[in-house]
Amino acid sequence: MSLDFDRIGDRLGQLEIELPSWGFADTGTRFGKFLQDGSAITIEDKLDDIAEVNRVTGACPMVAIHVLWDVEDPGKPDSLVEAAAARGLRIGSINPNVFQDQCYKLGSVSNEDPAIRRRAIDHLLDSVNLGKATGSDVLTLWFADGTNYPGQGSIRRRKQWFQEALREVHDAMPATMTMLIEYKPFEPAFYHTDIADWGMASAMARHAGERARVLVDTGHHLPGQNIEHIVAFLADENMLGGFHFNDSHYADDDLTTGSMNPYATFRIFLEILQAERDQGRLLPIAWMVDQSHNLKPKTEAMIQTVMTIQELFAKAMLVDLEALDEARSRGNIIDAEECLKSAYATDVREALGQWRAGRGLPADPMAAHRESGYQGKVAADRIKRKPSASSSYA
Ligand code: PSV
Ligand code: MN
Q1: Distance, CA 290 to ligand 1 centroid (Å)?
Q2: CA-nearest residue, atom 5 of ligand 1
Q3: pLDDT per residue as tens digits for the range 21-66
C-alpha cells in the first residue's frame, strides 16, 4: 500500500498538536519525584522545549498552560504571550486550577461552602480573562471534585452547583471561546467523582451553553472501555471538543500516546475520519497532549508522541472507507475488519519522512533533535539552577 501524499499529507499537515507546559517539568508520583537534569524549571524553559519539538516536527505551535503553574501574574500576561511568540508559539488552552489549594479539600465548585464555590468560580472567570488576554480560544476544565465516602456529600446538590458554576463561566466567555469539560472516573476522589464519564460531561456541557463541549482524555477511562465508541457518539452529537492524548495500562498512567495500545488510538482516528467524511467538514477538535513523563527524557518523549500520532493518523487515513462500507453492506465482517488491519499493518514511517522533508522539516525529528545537542545544552544551564539535583551530563 503506498501513501497518497496529496490526500494524506494535506490532512496530516492540518494536525496541530498542542503540547502541555507541564509535560516538561519535573513531576512525580504520590511516592516521589525522579528529577532530570534537563527538565524545565521556568515557563521560559518549557516554551524553549516546546519550540524545540515544534522545530523538528513542525506540528506543535501551541502550548497549553496551567494557570497556577505557569502564570505569575494572571493580570499581566503580555510577557507570556511575547515569550511564546518569540519562539514561534502561541498560547493554546487555558487550564484553570481549582484543585491544589487547601480550601478545595472537599471540592471547588461543588463545595458545601458557598464562599469556596465563589472563590473557585472567580478563578475560572479570571481564567476566561486570561484566555482573552492571551488570544486563547479554549478553556479546558478538569475538576478533582468528588467524595471519598458514601454519605459524604449530596451527589444531586453537587451536580446542581456544577451546573450553576459552568453556566456562569460560559456566559462570561467571548463568542470565540470554547469550554471543554473533561471527565475522569476516579482519582483523587475514590467514591464518586462529580464529572465521572463522558455522559456526565456531555450533560454538563449542554447545561453550560452552546459553546461547551466534551474533552476526552484517553487515560481517563476504566480498563476495557471502548474509547472510539465514545468518540464516534460524541462526534455524531456534535459534542466532541478535544482530546488529551496519552496512553495507560491501568488507569491515568500518563504514558506516551500509542505506547500501550496503538491500535486503539488508530481506531479513534478512524472514527474521526469517518465522521469528517460523513459530515463533510473537519471536526472542530482541539488536539492536545496531556502527558507527564517521570522516566523518559521529556522532550524526546514528546517528539516520540508527535511522531506516533502522525503515524497512527496516516494509517487511519489509509483505510479504504468505500471498501469498508461495501463490506458492511454485504455483512462481511472479515472483509470489513481486514480494511482496518491492512491499513494498520502498513509501515508509513519512511513515507512520512519524505513528507516531512518535502515540507522543509527533518525527515527524522528524533534524530534531528539528538544531533542538535539541544538537551545537553539546556541541561548544562538548568542544572546550575537546580541546587539539589546531581548532574548526569557533567
Ligand atoms: C487530570 O488528571 C488531568 O488530566 C487534567 O487534564 C489536568 O489539567 C492535567 O491532568 C494535569 O494535572
Ligand atoms: Mn487531562
Answers
A1: 7
A2: 142
A3: 999 999 888 899 899 999 999 999 999 999 999 999 999 999 999 9
| Whether the predicted model's global pTM rises above the 0.85 cut | yes
Provide CB contacts within 8 A for 266, sequence distance 6+.
312, 315, 316, 340, 344
Helix (H/G/I), strand (E/B), else coil: 246: coil
Omega before 188 cis (within 30°)? yes
Alpha-carbon distance of 80 to 44, in angstroms, equals 8
Taking each helix axis from N to C terminus, what angle separates 333-345 and 298-317, rounded to the nearest 10 degrees? Answer: 140
Neighbours of ion ligand 2 (CB under 5 A): 217, 244, 290
Please tell me the CATH code under which domain 14-318 is placed: 3.20.20.150
Q: List the residue whose alpha carbon is closest to atom 1 of ligand 1.
A: 142
Provide the residue count of the chain.
394
Nearest ligand to residue 64 Cα: 1
- Nearest Cα residue to atom 10 of ligand 1: 290
Strand pairing category for 32-33 and 286-289:
unpaired
How many CB atoms neighbour CB 109 within 10 A? 27
Instruction: State residue 66 phi and psi, 5-degree precision.
Output: -100, 120
